[in-house]
Amino acid sequence: MQNRPAPNRLIDETSPYLLQHAWNPVDWYPWGPEALERARSQDRPILLSIGYAACHWCHVMAHESFEDAETAALMNERFVCIKVDREERPDLDGIYMDAVQAMTGQGGWPMTVFLTPEGGPFYAGTYYPKVDRPGMPSFKKVLLAVDDAWQRRRDDARHQGAQVVELIAAQAGSLAEGAGQPEEATLRQAFDGLQRAFDPTWGGFGPAPKFPQPMTLEFLLRCHLRGFEGALDMVELTLNRMASGGIFDQLGGGFHRYSTDRRWLVPHFEKMLYDNAQLVRLYARAWQVTGADRHRQVAVATADYLLRELRHPQGGFFSSQDADSEGEEGKFFVWSYQELVEVAGEPVARFLGALPEGNWEGGNVLWTPLPAKAAAEAAGVGVEELERALPGARAALFERREGRVRPATDDKVLAAWNGLAIGALAEAGRVLPEPRYVAAAVAAAEFVLSTMRTPRLRRAWRDGRLGGPGYLDDYACMAEACLTLYETTFEPRWLREALALADEL
């Protein structure tokens, strides 16, 4: 029996993403003094790879390149290789994402950045395939080209790195100069830009891919309350289209990260805590403004998903769930037409947007493109019959799906994202009203403040181990969460906690 190779330095990390790479043949370092000193002492460039546990293309690149012995040998020979979890180190992710966008005009994960030993980025990209594709060189070709540039044109590489750093610093300076309260004209200009980008048929902004953008929709909801004509129409259409789409889990609640198409049909299937927390709050507020029960139903289904699948027994909330299971993207969520008919009947299958030939790569992503009446007519049944069948059919489909191999959960607890969840659940619990959401918010706040302060707030916790110090968003989101808990419960302790966190901030 062949012995398993020894793990690399990531084996001692707490991040599930870093631990996924602990058995790669790549000589990975976590970000820290040891890796940076090695790069400086050996005058070798740094290969920085940044991603996160639920990232589909991170898994693809890991399988194609980081698990490949030949590619790993090349990485180890020519570079000091550093792996970073963007969720644990948003500071590094922000800095080097700015660099990637400055150099390439776009960004994303996995992020692949080549740095001078001093940390200056001189070449960057995102996913690179194992073999050449049209317009996309193979990862090994990129490694060899970057190494050649470092060996032959080192001064040019250092100059490029210095220029990128100067550009990012200048951009940060211009943003700081514009700080302060926006004027009415600024709000109107932003609103006009959103109107121009709005998709009047399917909602959302711009072409595919489409992201939920809860903060943008929250802005529009407030524009409506300021009297901006057409603002509420954009919010309503987008919220309804998203809730009808495959981006929303029609059986288990909760939203996937984004839609690959204009219609919100086919998502990237990972589910993120921060997205779902903000969407709970947004749908609850939309219900307050409009009284439309559909928004309340979506808020409840999404909050229930958080409580059911992302809650630690001690109260904190996990970070995300994968897109993949059994090595295949979306396998947990996609259905054959035959299985849908077998479990739920053909009228329900049709209502859920399924086709015998499949609506995505031969399978079916569940969505509700037609109102119940139109779907019933298309299936040749009465609308009352379909509506009677739906609750039991959804429950049966959910139960069948629970028997499948589940996507992995990134079970680290992040202070900032828990702050978003606490605030959303406290507010939703107050206005819907759903007292169990308030109780869950209190439990999560108690977990973060009792377990993740020593005495300063820490960024992450997993399995009894704490991560590094908290960042701006950790303090800000937790302070806002405590303030919302005070507004919900009127317990003075939460106001004191909010003030204490603000003082530390």
Secondary structure layout:
Elements: H1 16-20, E1 29-30, H2 33-42, E2 46-51, H3 56-66, H4 69-78, E3 80-85, H5 90-104, E4 111-115, E5 121-125, H6 139-152, H7 154-177, H8 184-197, H9 214-225, H10 231-244, E6 258-259, E7 267-268, E8 271-272, H11 273-290, H12 293-309, E9 318-321, E10 324-325, E11 328-329, H13 337-344, H14 346-351, H15 372-379, H16 383-402, E12 409-414, H17 415-431, H18 435-451, E13 460-462, E14 465-466, H19 472-489, H20 492-504
Helix pairs in contact: 4-6, 5-7, 6-7, 9-10, 9-11, 11-12, 11-17, 15-16, 17-18, 17-19, 18-19, 19-20
Question: How would you describe what is shown here?
Answer:
The protein is α+β, with helices and mostly antiparallel strands and 505 residues long. The protein is built from 20 helices and 14 strands. The chain has helices spanning 16-20, 33-42, 56-66, 69-78, 90-104, 139-152, 154-177, 184-197, 214-225, 231-244, 273-290, 293-309, 337-344, 346-351, 372-379, 383-402, 415-431, 435-451, 472-489, 492-504; strands spanning 29-30, 46-51, 80-85, 111-115, 121-125, 258-259, 267-268, 271-272, 318-321, 324-325, 328-329, 409-414, 460-462, 465-466. Strand 4 and strand 5 form a beta hairpin. Helix 6 crosses helix 7. It is globular, with a radius of gyration of 24 Å. The model has no long low-confidence stretch (mean pLDDT 93).
Q: Which structural class do the helices and strands define?
A: alpha+beta
Major sheet strand order? 1-3-2-4-5
Tell me the overall shape. globular
SS field, number of helical segments? 20
DSSP, total strands: 14
Distance between the termini: 55 Å
- Main sheet characteristics: 5 strands, mixed
Uncertain residue segments = none
Q: Mind telling me the C-alpha Rg?
A: 24 Å
Give the integer mean of the pLDDT values: 93
The proportion of strand residues reads 5-15%
Percent range for helical residues? Answer: 40-55%
